From TrEMBL:
This is Uncharacterized protein. It comes from Schistosoma curassoni.
Amino acid sequence: MFDLSSSCQSAIKWFQNESFASNNNRRPIRIIIFTVIGPRDPEPFLKCLQSSSFAFDLVVFANPHDGQFGNSI
């Protein structure tokens, strides 16, 4: 079984490293898109994000397998 909390922690760590590595003085806009495949509950991921001191500007959950995106690609 896939561990959402480790995925969340990895995403936060990556964004923190990239934000600190930025050489300009502007704060980057932090957007994370999490693709949910199958019948996963996104609540553990949200709890992980909420418990972190690192803030995202936008969090998007996508499930391309539930038919919401249609056949337009």
